[in-house]
Amino acid sequence: MTARPTLWPPAGTRLCRRDEIGDDECRGFAFGEGTERFEMFLVCKAGQVRAYVNDCPHAGTPLDWQENQFLNHEKTLLLCGTHGALFRIEDGRCVAGPCLGRKLTPMPIRIAAGEIRLD
Ligand code: FES
């Protein structure tokens, strides 16, 4: 088993209720402050919720161009607002832009009793 990166919140950390994120929606989360700050987001597509670290593999900036806005206009791909890289929702792979072929870092989540938590 791979060790969890040190800034990741612990397993079991509550993110939100499942009904707070609908299809074609995203939600960003931030934990900690300063150099300890950690950001991640949830994306929901076709009823499936996935989580990624909010850190573009191109230049290391957050992807969202506005609060909770991580999708392109068509809501088919994740979009980095800094230089426009596009990532597949299902696996985080970059399919266009300056980090083509690289991937967002997925995070494990679990959904139980109507709540989404880190796993
Ligand atoms: S930082 Fe995301 S595309 Fe450049």
N- to C-terminal distance: 13 Å
The low-pLDDT segments are: none
Widest sheet: strand ordering: 2-3-4-8
Strand content: 35-45%
Helix content: under 10%
Look up the CATH topology.
Rieske Iron-sulfur Protein
**Which structural class fits the helix and strand makeup?**
mainly beta
Question: What's the name of the CATH homologous superfamily?
Answer: Rieske [2Fe-2S] iron-sulphur domain
Order of helices and strands: EEEEEEEEEE
What's the CATH C level? Mainly Beta
How many domains? 1
Broad shape: globular
Q: Report the count of strand segments.
A: 10
Largest sheet: 4 strands, antiparallel
Please tell me how large the radius of gyration is.
Answer: 14 Å
The number of helical runs is 0
Hetero compounds: FE2/S2 (inorganic) cluster
Averaged pLDDT: 95
Supply the CATH architecture: 3-layer Sandwich
Describe it.
With 119 residues, the chain is mainly beta. It has a single domain, classed as Rieske [2Fe-2S] iron-sulphur domain (Rieske Iron-sulfur Protein). The protein is built from no helices and 10 strands. A 4-stranded antiparallel beta sheet has the order 2-3-4-8, with no helix packed on it. A 3-stranded antiparallel beta sheet has the order 1-10-9, with no helix packed on it. FE2/S2 (inorganic) cluster binds next to loops. The site of FE2/S2 (inorganic) cluster has 11 residues, from loops.
